[in-house]
Amino acid sequence: MAASSLGLAVIAAAWFTESSPGPQVLALAFLVASVLAAAAARAMTGHRVTVASEWSRAACALLGELGIYAALAGAVSLAGAAAGSTANGLGGPLGPSLQGTMIGHAGGLGASGAWALAVVAAVALTLNHTAALCAAGPAARLPRLGAVRLLLAGLAVLLAGPRLGLVVVLVLALLGLLVTLLRPGGGATGVAGYRGDGPVSAWIGGLVAGRLPPLAPLLVGLLVTCMLAALGLRNLPGILVLTPAEAMLLAALGSSHLHDGPGDWRVPAFLQAGEYVFLAAAGYAGHTPGPVTFGLVAAVGLRHLDMAYRARQRVPLSWFMDRRGQRLPRADWRGFGWEGRMILIGIALLGSLTTPVFVAMGLYLAGLEAADYIASWRIASLVAPRPGPRAAAVTAAGPAGADVAGVGLVPAAGPELPPGASLVAGGPDPAALAAEAESDHNVG
Length: 444
What we know:
Layout: H1 2-16, H2 21-43, H3 51-83, H4 95-98, H5 102-105, H6 110-136, H7 147-160, H8 162-181, H9 199-208, H10 215-231, H11 243-248, H12 267-285, H13 290-313, H14 337-350, H15 354-377, H16 389-392, H17 430-440
Helix pairs in contact: 1-2, 1-3, 2-7, 3-6, 3-8, 3-13, 6-8, 6-12, 6-13, 7-8, 10-12, 12-13, 12-14, 13-15, 14-15
């Protein structure tokens, strides 16, 4: 049903690219069907839901909503190309009255402004999913297809065109993110695995050995990155364009920490926000087309959500192992990690190669997601913890509790693995890699 919901969302997105009322009504009908299919998929959750199916439903929900965002921005681009001018994306019975207002100028005029709105909405959406997982912990429900956001956006398109639809989803996504982050406390355990650290961040964190709290250095780096992005990366001469990436490396000092402080559950969302801000600013400074920037943000968001679910369910990703010889989703080696991607994009901006690097990185991450799904998610036979008292009570360290190293949770149900066993068939022999992992081990 989740796949059906995604398929219906794709069909709705295709119809939303048309500017006439007939196709837009048809798009809204398919969007309603997609929302209903997503609700049916959540209702069909049984007592034995594999971690692969849980991640598949989350991915379908994210991709379906991102597809609608891209379609709304694409509709503005197609309308401008057909009219031979810079269309503003406002139409319908209320569109003319919104011309010249803040809605008509939000993000900028024309197609570039619409894609800017879509990029910010995509960032808010992915951060919303991450923050919700961190706040709810092991009892987190599956991320939902944004029924309210999408249905209101569909109605807004009928009333005033695709630009108003983008403004609606953006405002609602930001409000949802704000509500989640302002919760008095989080119930997550092991959110350090939700960070999406790469090898550089893991190595830096290992030097501190978990003695530095993660939130303070992260906020400093995030503040510097946001200030430089607001000033414009194109105004930074030469190698100074790497300054935001260097500032965000302050967050790597806390990568080995257990993230057990009262506000540490917010760290993954803030950390990923810094990466998204830099990617969007680099795309703008490098004159990268809006669809390309949107595609990279979507691919990075899917990667972050994948890493969070792997940490939550202890589905291995790479050859990283802990001292017990079990492979853990600690460092995103093949995806470069958030710091690796920021450094690569900074170098691309320095060499005026942002567009080809954005395209290459987006395609690489998309292919990597497909390969990782086939290599590990599909053969994962563990059973995901269901929302409820039993899942929420999984807090004791050990084979069926919270991981003391801060890399996620062991599902309360499902087969237990013997020490040294790999969760992925055909994976590297833990005994052969234990010595190498011991030297690289950096988990608090």
